[in-house]
Each structure stands twice: as C-alpha cells, then as structure tokens.
C-alpha cells in the first residue's frame, strides 16, 4: 500500500498540506510501533429493536496510554534533533497527550516538563508519572488548558526547550493518522461513513485524510459537543476562531480554538458536522459498557453518540467509530451513571401539591403513580396546610409518562414539571422543625423492585403517622436507601410504633431510627 511517491525532505516542504500529511503518515508507520502495537477493531451490535448499522469500533482505549495520543506524541518526539533532545521538551495537556509525551520521553531518554491545569485529577497526574518516570516533571499551572499552554510557551521561550503541540503539528497529526492506516489494513472496510470526534482536530484531520485517500466515497462526519464546537465555528468563519464559552464535560475535546493545520485539512475532508449533547454522550457511554464492557471517557464515546442520534438513517450501512480514550476520572463515573442520558428509561420530575393531611401521600401514589417507577423522591414538611412532594418518575415507554399529567388533572392535583430544577439537582429539601410534634427519622434499606417502597409505607405507616420528610434516590443497586421522617400525634403513639417496628420485614432489609443527634440537625430549622 502506498500514499504516492515519497519526496526528499526539502521538496516535501513545498507540497500542499494534504500531500505532506499523507507522506508523513507513511513515515510514521516506521516510528510509532517501537512505542506500542496496533489496536483492536471490534464489532458493536446496538441493543434494542429497530434498524441498526454495521458498526466497527477502533479500540484506542486499549493502547499503551489508554488513548490514541501516544501515536502523535511519539512520532513527533522521534523527529527531534540531538540538540533539541539535549535542550529537553515542554508541552501542555489536560491528560491524554501528556501520557503520550511521557511514554516517548522515557523511551527516548528526553527530559520533559508537562504543564497541566491545577484541577487535573490525581489519577491523570499519576499516569503521566508512571509512563515518564524520572524523565518527566509535572508543572501545575492555571485552572484551564489554555492557561497551562501559556505557561508552557513561556517556559519554551525562556529555556529553549522544544514544544510538542497536542494537535497543531504535522508530525503529531501524522502519528494519529496511523490509526486510520490500521483501519484500512484491517480488512473490515470499506466503510460508508466514519464519525470522528474533534477537539483541536489533530486526529480527525489525519484520519479523514487517510480514509479519503483509500475510500474516496466515504462520508466523514465531524462530531463535537454543543458547548465546545470549535471546528464547526472555524468552518463557518472560514478560519479558526476562539470560543468565548467552553463546556468541559468531554474534557478530552474541550479545545477553545481549532488548530490551523488540522483546519487546513478538515475544511476539505469533512463532509458535514454534527453536534451532540452531554446527555447523548452519557447514553453512549452506557451502550459501550453494556455491549463491549468498555468504560470510555466522555470524549471517547462521542462518535457512538452521533451514531445513536442518527441510527434510523444508518440502517444497512457500514459505520466506523473511534473510542479515542478511557482516561476517565473515577469520580466522574457516578455523575454519568446518575445522569438522565445514561438511564435506560425516560423520566420526568414533577412537583405535586397535596393537602398536608394523613393518608394523602399514599392516595397519590395509589392512583396517579400506579405502575410507574419512582427513581427519586424528595419531600420535607414546610407548611401546615399544603405539601409539595417532588417525584422523578421513570418508565420504559414514553407514552406511560405522557399519560401522567391527565391522571393528575383528573385527580384534582395541581402540579408542575420541574425537570432539571437547581434545588432538585442539589437536593435542597426544606423541613420546618417548628411544625413537628413527635417526629422520628428512619434509615430504610429496601429491596429495589416495583412497589416495594409503596408496600412499606402502606403496611407499616398508613393511619399511624404523617410523613414529614422523604429523601430517596435510585442508585442502581439492588438495595434502595431512603431517609424517612414520620410525625406522630403523641409521644405514646411514637413509642408504640418504635416498639412494634420490625428491623427486618417483607420487602425491606433494614429499618432503624437515626440517633438523636442526626434528628436534632434535621429539625433544627424553625
């Protein structure tokens, strides 16, 4: 396989950018594989009914640094002269490029300083040190990637070190292009369409250039997050422009301005752009886990998110996506798992007004919410006459949720859709202690199955106490956990309830009163 005649170095400088890139990808073949091996191509079958394309996944998450970035960094650093190596290397990165540079630094014996934002998680810092060892120093500077770049550039100016750019460098781009070379050589092509995520454009420019060389008819779709679409902005403006605001949920592609060299390629190789939401990315991360048992970082799942968005129109086509990385902060997994996008069902969050009277909460559950799953329940007593419990309801089919408003209206309830409300997101549950008479708070662990929570309330509480507090959120475990507040009309009825309350019972694993100190904190507000 050849990308054309190879020109001498001086002549290559005068070639058009796309021809220079193709030739550099050919040379990169000879360099990158001393640092790592080709990555797997794997078939992904989408779950669920409906039409589905034939999807092939390039598993860059299985590379030496768990992302494709090793290719470009290693290729670029092999091209440094002896003088440049002696002066050392400096770069800036939020994580993945840093690990690639660290791997090359240790293998080639080059002293390297890597500037990273001060907010960089320890797990990424430790990975850089693991790959680079004694040849790498991490310099934490600024609160963003842009500020880290400024500090690294100042270091370059003062020290004379060579700067290895994360994406706007022809050798870096060519190194990333070797993943496309492996796709061509895999025998799974040709592909009808490839969805390529874009940050600064280093990977998408090289991969699109190489795929178009061998499969001219392939459609290349550039994929960006709605709040970080720097290449889309560049294409619309005719040149790279700087974004004012930048969403960093997909941190691996959170680049404020597309690279000049990548833009020079992408303007000719990208057939169209597609933007996706963080919720759509979260849904794609879940699909990758459920199908390939792959835990992708948000940026790594952007290609699949685009496929899911356009699934209906892709039936019968052969599709290529790249899992570009798996360097996700462990703490971020919890946020993604609890996000609306990663849920396997649709949901709505409603605030319903009911009289502050015994039995009205159960009556609401018995009628309007029958057959629906309550994934989140927030309520605190803060008015003597009216209550406003907040429910997040999920259902496998949208039409079940669509029927809920009519049920509430028929029952005479006033209600409000408050999905994504700030107070609900941060679980700001009001409770007025001065309205309570003889409260008790229970820590309840119950078995997560349809109706279990309702059964507990109906069997043990109905007619004995008023519900004054409820804090429950579905976690995905087989055991649900809730903090429940009950208010009794007298101290005697409260004591009688506690004496007869089974610690274990049908439908629940444990029910215990919280200690007096916790109860005092919950009821201290007057």
Automatic annotation (TrEMBL):
**UniProt-listed GO biological process terms:** isoleucine biosynthetic process; L-serine catabolic process
As recorded in UniProt, its EC number(s) are 4.3.1.19
Q: Which reaction does it catalyse?
A: L-threonine = 2-oxobutanoate + NH4(+)
Cofactor(s) needed: pyridoxal 5'-phosphate
Amino-acid biosynthesis in keyword set:
yes
InterPro entries associated with the record = ACT-like_dom_sf (IPR045865), Ser/Thr_Dehydratase (IPR050147), TD_ACT-like (IPR001721), TD_ACT-like_sf (IPR038110), TrpB-like_PALP (IPR001926), TrpB-like_PALP_sf (IPR036052)
Q: Name one GO molecular function term.
A: L-serine ammonia-lyase activity
Enzyme class name: lyase
Q: In which pathway does it act?
A: Amino-acid biosynthesis; L-isoleucine biosynthesis; 2-oxobutanoate from L-threonine: step 1/1
Keywords of the record, alphabetical order, are: Amino-acid biosynthesis, Branched-chain amino acid biosynthesis, Isoleucine biosynthesis, Lyase, Pyridoxal phosphate
Residue intervals of the ACT-like domain: 348-420, 440-515
Q: Provide the family line.
A: Belongs to the serine/threonine dehydratase family.
Quote the protein name from its UniProt record: threonine ammonia-lyase
Q: Which organism is it from?
A: Brevifollis gellanilyticus
UniProt lists the gene as ilvA
């Amino acid at each position: 396989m050849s990308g054309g005649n190879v020109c001498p170095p001086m002549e290559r400088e005068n070639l058009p950018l796309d021809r220079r890139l193709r030739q550099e990808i050919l040379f990169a073949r000879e360099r990158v594989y001393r640092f790592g091996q080709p990555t797997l191509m794997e078939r992904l079958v989408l779950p669920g009914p409906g039409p589905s394309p034939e999807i092939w996944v390039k598993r860059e998450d299985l590379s030496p640094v768990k992302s494709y970035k090793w290719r470009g960094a290693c290729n670029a650093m092999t091209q440094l002269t002896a003088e440049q190596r002696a002066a050392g290397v400096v770069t800036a990165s939020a994580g993945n490029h840093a690990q690639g540079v660290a791997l090359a630094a240790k293998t080639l014996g080059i002293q390297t300083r890597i500037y990273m934002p001060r907010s960089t998680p320890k797990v990424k810092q430790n990975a850089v040190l693991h790959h680079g060892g004694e040849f790498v120093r991490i310099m934490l500077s600024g609160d963003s990637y842009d500020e880290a770049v400024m500090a690294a550039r100042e270091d370059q100016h003062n020290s004379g070190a060579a700067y290895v750019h994360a994406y706007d460098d022809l050798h870096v781009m060519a190194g990333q292009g070797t993943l496309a070379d492996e796709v061509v050589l895999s025998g799974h092509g040709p592909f009808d369409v490839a969805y390529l995520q874009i940050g600064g454009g280093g990977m998408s420019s090289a991969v699109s250039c190489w795929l178009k060389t061998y499969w001219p008819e392939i459609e290349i779709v550039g994929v960006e997050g709605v709040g970080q679409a720097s290449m889309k902005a560049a294409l619309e403006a005719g040149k790279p422009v700087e974004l004012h605001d930048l969403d960093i949920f997909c941190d691996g592609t959170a680049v404020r301005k597309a690279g000049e060299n990548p833009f020079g390629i992408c303007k000719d190789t990208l057939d169209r752009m597609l933007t996706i939401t963080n919720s759509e990315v979260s849904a794609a991360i879940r699909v990758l886990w459920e199908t390939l048992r792959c835990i992708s970082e948000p940026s790594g799942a952007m290609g699949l998110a685009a496929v899911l968005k356009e699934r209906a129109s892709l039936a019968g086509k052969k599709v290529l996506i790249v899992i570009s990385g798996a360097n996700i902060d462990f703490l971020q997994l919890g946020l993604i798992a609890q996000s609306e996008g990663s849920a396997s069902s649709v949901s709505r969050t409603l605030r319903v007004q009911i009289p502050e009277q015994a039995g009205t909460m159960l009556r609401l559950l018995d009628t309007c919410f029958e057959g629906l799953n309550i994934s989140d329940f927030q309520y605190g007593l803060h008015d003597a006459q009216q209550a406003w419990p907040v429910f997040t309801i999920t259902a496998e089919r949208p039409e079940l949720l669509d029927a809920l408003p009519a049920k509430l209206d028929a029952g005479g309830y006033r209600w409000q859709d408050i999905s994504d409300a700030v107070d609900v997101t941060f679980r700001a549950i009001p409770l007025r202690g001065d309205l309570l008479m003889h409260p008790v708070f229970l820590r309840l662990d119950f078995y997560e199955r349809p109706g279990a929570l309702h059964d507990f309330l109906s069997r043990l509480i109905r007619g004995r106490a008023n519900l004054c507090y409820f804090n429950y959120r579905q976690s995905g475990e087989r055991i649900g956990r809730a903090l429940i507040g009950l208010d009794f009309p007298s101290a005697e009825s409260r004591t009688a309830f506690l004496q007869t309350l089974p610690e274990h019972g049908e439908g629940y694993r444990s029910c215990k009163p919280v200690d007096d100190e916790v109860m005092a904190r919950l009821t201290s507000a007057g």
